[in-house]
Amino acid sequence: MMTPHDLTAIRKVVEDCLEEFDDFISTLDRYPPNLIVVALGIHLHGMVGELVEDELCSRGQALDFVQKLHHDMLEELNELGFRTQRCWLSSSIFRNSKRSRVT
């Protein structure tokens, strides 16, 4: 069972990681935001696959994560008034990308 101290430490590490990630993303300003999102999606796909392949999580856990991410994003888009059926993010770019290894 995780203690409050463990949770605080994990939150701190996640915050630090997000800060570094934000700093990195800001260096990509020469690319349009929609292409950054596509690239991040492809990269995330590969990373989740690696977690399963390296047995750091089960296929079920990976599926739960992806489904929760999908649900949360659709909910946020709906709150913003977007119709996801017409959104370019639903394109086949993600379905057609093959990235077996994250480098």
Write the layout of secondary structure elements.
Blueprint: H1 4-26, H2 33-53, H3 59-79, H4 93-96
Describe this protein with a few key phrases.
103 residues, 2 domains, 4 helices, 67% helix, disordered C terminus
Tell me the β content.
under 5%
Largest sheet: none
What is the count of structural domains? 2
Say how many strands there are: 0
Low-confidence stretches: 99-103
Radius of gyration (Å): 16 Å
* Number of helices, counting only DSSP H or I runs of 4 residues or more: 4
Q: How far from one another are the termini?
A: 34 Å
Query: What structural class is derived from the secondary structure elements?
Result: mainly alpha
Commentary on this structure:
This protein is 67% helix and 0% strand. The protein has two domains: 30 residues; 72 residues. The C terminus is likely disordered. The chain has 103 residues and is mainly alpha-helical.
